[in-house]
Structures
1.
Amino acid sequence: MARAALRLERDRGEPDRFGRVRDELARLPPRPAGGRGEETLFVTRPLLPPLTEFLPYLAEIWQSRQLTNGGPFHAQLEAELAAHLGVEHLALFANGTLALMTALKALAVEGEAITTPYSFVATAHSLLWNNITPVFADVDSATCNLDPERVAAAITPRTSAILAVHCYGAPCDVEAIGAIARENELKVIYDAAHAFGVKHRGQSLLRHGDMAVLSFHATKVFHTFEGGAIVCPDADAKRRVDFLKNFGFADEVTIEDCGINGKMNEVQAAMGLLQLKHVDRAIERRAAIDAFYRRALAGAPGIEMLAPIPGHTPNYSYFPILVDPAWRGGREALYARLRQASVHGRRYFYPLISDMPMYRDLPSAAPENLPRARALAEKILCLPIYPDLEAHEAQRVVDAITG
Ligand code: T4K
């Protein structure tokens, strides 16, 4: 309603109410320069559509004064995202970590959960916050994801779930993990923080598992500044998740469970609606950069790239390379050389979660249990990839590696 009113004002040729903001934007200093006077290239930069496209959403929020607690943008984004992603039931969250914690609670996971040591720390932290013991299993070197054989070998009478990660958006072996879970009556939660829009055999990857959890952090392919979501299998599961993210309130006077405050606010949801208009184009840009790196680094000494996975439609969220430890000082030396050239690659995921102080004394964290994850963590370097990265900047990255 209010947005329609705003459009009308513009249609009537009234003065450009955002002109002053535009002028101020034009006066902003350029992006930060690196050590040699070159612009620093970060591992990622957020997708930011023109600010003028965001202002009408803000005007609407100001007018309605509905800032959070399930406002109209929240409802609209849940519906549009579900349609965009090809899923039926999706609950928005303030961030991906709260969504992970809530998914585990909603599925009543307890005791032990088998998980990967090769991920962002939030994966295992979400277990610890729920008093669930993480049991680390080794990964498959080709995909960086949990190896189903190692998962099966890690099951004990206390295991109640598998918390797997689609690392870099590459699909886990969902068929094998699903079969193990069915056989052993385990829940499966996919940490799909990297897997926005990813398809597996033509269908949304998010349809696998009892729940799949997305992150909409600023560094992700699609973002709401901070944000996240749980993809639920049915309306009942979404209803339960919706209670849990709102302190457990079923209505004004009924508290169903010990919930948390995990709600996404209206400004975040508005950003999501705007992102949806740009995200397909942004993924196309990422695909072009991915293709450029693959061509430019093919056959480069000391550098290996992860092979594309058959039947997988990727989102190009990361561009990981594996650096041979015997090549010119290995990954650490290359990381330092790139920093000198103002290229800030990131060692996602080093150190392993299992090496962190709160996990390293667990029996499953023993180095001999996780040799493949350890080898990956020692070699990995993620290169800059984001929609605004220019061809000459990607070339700068390649030159810094090969030069
Ligand atoms: N599960 C997995 C598998 C995850 O990867 C993550 C998050 C989660 C769960 C948890 O989801 P959330 O609770 O975060 O929704 C970043 C992100 O903070 C984190 O969301 C992400 N994974 C992780 C892989 O990366 P940092 O500490 O490396 O981010 P930071 O601040 O160093 O940013 C990296 C680069 O991005 C910067 O050098 C510059 C650029 N950047 C970053 C921000 C925040 C910008 O240009 N603008 C920005 O606003 O963790």
Note: The chain has a mean pLDDT of 92.
2.
Amino acid sequence: MTQEKWGQLKLGLLKTVGQSNYTTWIEPLEFEQLQDGVAVFNVPTNFMGNYVSQNFADVILYELNTAGEKVQRVTFRVSANSTAKPSPRLVSEAPKAVAASVESTVSTGEELPAAPLDTRFTFDTFVVGKPNELAHAAARRVSEGGPVTFNPLVLYGGVGLGKTHLMHAIAWELRKRQPELNVLYLSAEQFMYRFVQALRERKMMDFKVLFRSVDVLMVDDVQFIAGKDSTQEEFFHTFNALVDQNKQIIISADRAPGEIKDLEERVKSRLQCGLVVDLHPTDYELRLGILQAKVQQHRDTYPGLEIANGVLEFLAQRISTNVRVLEGALTRLFAFASLVGREIDMELTQDCLADVLRASERKITVEEIQRKVSDYYNIRLSDIIGPKRLRSYARPRQVAMYLAKQLTSRSLPEIGRRFGGRDHTTVMHGVKRIEELKVIDGQIAEDVEILRRALEA
Ligand code: ADP
Ligand code: MG
């Protein structure tokens, strides 16, 4: 981003934050650099850095991204040779012409309606199995709209395991049973969007009134607001106001609240006050069940379509990632079969889904794990494999052993051989140690999780 561009963006912020905030907090910001998605600004004082970071970081981030800059984070630092100066107390209004042009460029934002509900995402179409039965039962309970017994309900789990589906199902059910209730479903991203818009249009009162008047609030993918301080702050207040009025709140996240990085402690603990249930990765039976249900649904679109024995079982076995991929595979299979007018048998399946099957076939090797782990901990590959017993090598080594046991089909002796010829009991000990540490040491748990994701990606 160039200085000129920042100059223009800065003026855009005038409308968002108002003249007095602008002159005090935004005007003095000096753009330093944008690298790897982090935009750095110089500020004259520490105090100012903290204040801007707490109160305006979201708005700035939003403005940068809207203008096409790819920025994940903004940081503020006090630079010794900064020419940034505290703004004078009395500043004249921005020239009228500029103010007018700013107005015309930023007031194009439209009122965002509540996110539409997907008509396919109902309880009828949700297949229940061991991995999701608790989440399903909790969702059912909340959807009955009785007295609020747990607040909030937090559903968490990996991508494509049915969080959004369950939330929509709750909303549909509530609408049916109690149409008078004001049910608001939206993603955390939309929550932030509305919040920022309210700020820029100076309609914070409307925003607060709107959000405090809902009977049931559902916020999907709440991990999105992590690190976005003023949005979190507003979320926290909205949350408290609704809980005080005994209104039901339903939240989803891609991991347990306690494990969401950069989520404020008080928000975390608020989320943990309710009922927290997770959706586990699907198992074979659930996947098969989902496939069978989907086939029934597809029958309407493709009447007379035949599926040979064993095809669904094969798919449930082979595609074990998320349900979305599984569904996509089936949809493609149906479209393809109806196009070529053939029965869906193994041969057609293999042809049609070659790429999907290959992707899920990818095997993770012990060597790959060792490489990733040594990169992650910034040590040499040879130190992971070698004999040194230093803690700073031993721990990563154990993490790598643990991941090798989890992610490959190698036996303990085979893993031991790949770690410089170690004994299988050493590997076993390492695996056990990490299992224990994962429970008591959040950092280890997080390291393992990050590495696992990176390896499975
Ligand atoms: P998430 O929000 O957890 O990422 P979604 O709710 O969007 O996942 O689910 C992804 C897709 O998989 C959706 O089309 C959804 O209908 C389907 N799906 C997930 N779990 C189930 C289930 N148990 N039964 C039926 N469909 C499911
Ligand atoms: Mg979702």
Note: The longest helix spans residues 284-301.
